[in-house]
Design brief:
Length: 449
């Protein structure tokens, strides 16, 4: 067979064998297909020399070596702000040390053909060191998959790969006891809890569930928690149902893989977890919650899940201790202080003392409700060329929205699946058409005309 008839990988193998002979004479080797991740610069930079491998072997470093068969070409990725070199084809010498002496592995990779972007890679390995090499190869694979720590949320599913959470902790208006509880649970877990879980030989995976009616601020809280977590340099993974796949278990599965291999503490957010519990995959979700399939990330993983449906939770979760470590109710507005704060916030610059008169009507409503009545009143006032929102206009907004909710004709715009929407400026609400964005009762209608 002459050179021209040989397959690409055969030429690589022939070159590698000759190189082996030149360097190590007749010492034995095994020729193996191997993972292209070993040539990936991300893996090479992440796996540090002195890393211990199976069989009391230590990795000591990598060196690129000249090879007439392949021109070394790198690909780049932009996982964060910086460009990072990713895959590289070419020849490398990986070195290792064992108590019985040092040894090398020769590795060479190349694109398969001109018209095929797949990479073929082969390695020559001392036969008694296969264990260590397979271990090393697995580390390379993992290093390439691992998300880089970044200032954005990593999305599994959905239509964007990353987004920035925009909600500040102070923007979420809820009783302080609830907010403090949630925040200190996360901090205590990552600071001390992870160690305690590990001492008990448990995977450090903590699970919190936010339960509450639509529009009380669960998605907002998730977004604010994500922002806090990123400030603490944790990785945030968000499972989104917002794509063609909807809520499928393979997304959760993928997310759990990312969580397990992240190498950093992770906040994992799964909104509307009830959807997954109703589908065929519910047994697998329960396995995850029970610990059978839960990710083992030594730095800790905190699951923050949300649902509107306490009944689903009741049966499968609340009655089975340990499935969720804590269930936190995010209620409607419980008292006038919170109502006042919410109204004040959403009236913004338009706030006037007299508006406080509607506060008693807001108890029992949601943050989404208050936002809508405030927006609506401000819009009406602007439409009527009023410089300020008077109490009458505000009261009309409250009345018309309450009426419409009472009649069950709930035109409250349905919230988006998650806080991803924050990124494209539409907030957490999916408002399809302007006219429908607020239920217009007769009084308000007059105002709009
Ligand atoms: N506690 C709150 N503080 C401030 N604003 C709120 C609060 N609750 C709701 N809102 C307003 O209502 C919008 C919708 O709230 P959010 O999407 O967080 O509700 P949710 O509890 O996730 O609802 P769902 O259960 O339907 O997903 C928010 O974007 C915000 O404008
Ligand atoms: Mg929500």
């Amino acid at each position: 067979m002459n050179q021209a008839q040989m397959m690409r990988y055969e030429r690589l193998a022939v070159w590698a064998q000759a190189e082996w002979q030149r360097r190590y004479g007749d010492s034995a080797y095994k020729l193996l297909w191997t993972s292209e991740s070993c040539g990936n610069q991300l893996a090479q930079s992440r796996i540090k020399p002195r890393r211990r491998l199976k069989g009391s072997v230590y990795y000591t470093g990598v060196e690129q070596i000249p090879c007439g068969e392949v021109i070394s070409i790198s690909e780049y990725v932009i996982p964060g702000r910086k460009v990072v070199l990713g895959e590289t084809v070419g020849a490398f010498r990986f070195s290792f040390i064992h108590t019985s002496g040092a040894f090398d592995v020769l590795y060479v990779s190349s694109y398969y053909r001109d018209d095929d972007p797949n990479i073929v890679s082969v390695a020559l390995i001392p036969p008694d060191r296969l264990d260590a090499w397979v271990n090393f190869e697995a580390l390379c694979n993992e290093a390439v998959r691992r998300p880089t720590r970044r200032q954005d949320v990593y999305i599994v599913g959905g239509t964007n790969a990353y987004f920035k959470p925009t909600v500040d902790w102070d923007e979420v208006i809820l009783p302080n006891s609830i907010k403090d509880d949630l925040r200190s649970d996360m901090e205590a877990f990552f600071k001390d809890g992870v160690k305690i879980y590990r001492e008990l030989n448990l995977a450090p995976f903590r699970k919190l569930l936010l339960v509450g009616p639509p529009g009380t601020g669960k998605t907002m809280l998730c977004s604010a928690m994500a922002k806090l977590a990123l400030q603490k340099k944790r990785v945030v993974v968000y499972v989104s149902g917002a794509d063609d796949d909807g809520a499928s278990f393979h997304k959760i599965h993928h997310a759990l893989n990312v969580v397990a291999t992240a190498g950093y503490p992770v906040l994992l957010i799964v909104e509307e977890i009830d959807v997954y519990l109703r589908k065929d995959d519910k047994a697998r979700i329960l396995n995850v919650l029970d610990g059978l399939e839960s990710p083992n990330n030594g730095r800790g993983a905190l699951l923050l899940a949300t649902t509107n449906y306490p009944e689903v939770i009741d049966e499968r979760i609340a009655k089975r201790p340990g499935r969720m470590d804590r269930i936190i109710t995010i209620p409607t507005i419980q008292d006038e202080d919170v109502a006042f704060e919410m109204l004040h916030h959403y009236m913004g610059a338009q706030w006037h003392e007299e508006h406080a008169a509607v506060v008693p009507f807001l108890v029992g409503q949601t943050g989404a409700f208050v936002r809508e009545i405030a927006l609506h009143a401000r819009m009406l006032a602007a439409h009527n060329h009023q410089r300020a929102v008077d109490l009458n206009t505000l009261q009309q907004s409250v009345d018309s929205l309450s009426n419409q909710l009472r009649t069950g004709d709930n035109l409250l715009p349905r919230r988006n699946i998650g806080f991803e929407a924050d990124n494209n400026g539409s907030g957490s609400y999916d408002v399809p058409e302007e006219e429908e964005s607020f239920p217009v009762g007769s009084a308000s209608e007059d105002g709009l005309d």
